[in-house]
Amino acid sequence: MRRSSIFFIIVLSGLIGLCLILLHSSVTIREREDELHLKAEMVKVLGLTDLCLFTEARYTRNPSVADIHTPFQDYPFSLEHFPSGSLMKPPGHIKK
What we know:
Elements: H1 3-31, H2 33-46, H3 58-61
């Protein structure tokens, strides 16, 4: 078997797996739509805050309330030393 045939089989199996994942997620969302509405109502009634995504630094815990200078609180040219800071983009309200 040629290397290109093996590559094609691997890519095709990956695409089939991706399609199955997308199909599963769309079915699951339809099944749990009522549950999601109940949870949204509970958040609204209780006044809950945003989800805590990471536990490392305060600017990655709740990105919607982070300001532009929080990552550089140690000194202005400090490098990012938390891995989660490289996994998420800055909040939308921070403009360059």
